[in-house]
Amino acid sequence: MTELRIATRKSPLALWQANFVKQQLEQHHPGLQVTLIPMSTQGDKILDTPLAKIGGKGLFVKELEQAILENRADIAVHSMKDVPVEFPDGLGLAVICERDNPYDAFVSNRFAGIHELPDGAVVGTSSLRRQCQLRAQRPDLVIRDLRGNVNTRLAKLDAGDYDAIILAAAGLRRLEKADRIRSLLPPEYSLPANGQGAVGIECRLNDTATLTLLASLEHAETRYCVLAERAMNRTLQGGCQVPIGAFAEMEDNDHLWLRGLVGSVDGKQIIRGDISGPKEQAEELGQLLAEQLLVQGADEILRAVYGA
User: Where in this chain does the record put each Porphobilinogen deaminase C-terminal domain (predicted)?
Assistant: First the structure.
């Protein structure tokens, strides 16, 4: 195989991720020519409506998956937190690359952290997960939706539309904008989304030549953690736009620790749990934690969210 085609969104962050995979592949396989096929997705086109109301983050991957199925591309590179838990027939997650910083980042031109924000300050985020955790700790804040790519969101902050915004730290780091991060929000304050900070590569499951090329990019520890997080989300039947947090980290070489939460959007009710166990049981651990959360009342919260 001498050529590999990557389907990618056109946003700066998506292009960074695709170019990162291109460089890694060309480094591991001299002589391989990797080309990018930039595409616009529904999620990129509908920018005036919160994602939760238009079908969630699957809108960012559908067109890319179609291109692979129709053999117009060989792989697609995704932020793992944007990847729906179910794949179309014939496609799957071939590789999960090493995770970058998984935390949420507080970004502001005037304040160093959430604790400094005055009563009634306006904070921008479209993530129901972030909204629910913020409201639980600071019910006085005014939280407004914020869509668009990273540069668009930063421009809205700089224009004075918001006192602060919350973004994924990994995205800012990748776009060389880490200097905009005033503080990182630890998981105790803002539990990340499943897969946050990790990049995944999707391809045709019967494409053995491509699967062989991609194998060198796999990061085993990241896969265990992300599989546990995604299993929890899948068992809760959580789309990407629901107030669910899931974050796993390795405790040692053989065990992982998974934390999860489900919350009401107003932050008045948050159910938390955690579980530890052997990394080989990552998916079972995710499923068990989800079942614990459901028994504690997460099912009622999720019903209310989906019914909204």
Answer: 224-294
pLDDT the model gives residue 306: 77
Structural domains of the chain in order of their starting residue, each with its CATH number: 1-97+198-218 (3.40.190.10), 104-185 (3.40.190.10), 219-308 (3.30.160.40)
147-206 pLDDT, tens digit per residue, is 888 999 999 999 999 999 999 999 999 999 999 999 999 999 999 999 999 999 999 999
Annotation says 82 is catalytic:
yes
Residue from 225, 121, 260, 101 nearest 171 by CA: 101
Q: State the angle between helix axes of 282-293 and 220-235 in degrees (0 to 180), rounded to the nearest 10.
A: 30
pLDDT less than 50: residues of the chain: 51-55
Please state the three-class secondary structure of the chain as a single string. CCEEEEEEECCHHHHHHHHHHHHHHHHHCCCCEEEEEEECCHHHHCCCCCHHHHCHHHHHCHHHHHHHHCCCCCEEEEEHHHCCCCCCCCEEEEEECCCCCCCEEEECCCCCCHHHCCCCCEEECCCHHHHHHHHHHCCCCEEECCCCCHHHHHHHHHCCCCCEEEEEHHHHHHCCCHHHCCEEECCCCCCCCCCCCCEEEEEECCCHHHHHHHHHHCCHHHHHHHHHHHHHHHHCCCCCCCCEEEEEEECCCCEEEEEEEEECCCCCCEEEEEEEEEHHHHHHHHHHHHHHHHHHHHHHHHHHHHHC
Exactly one of 44, 48, 74, 82 is catalytic; name it. 82
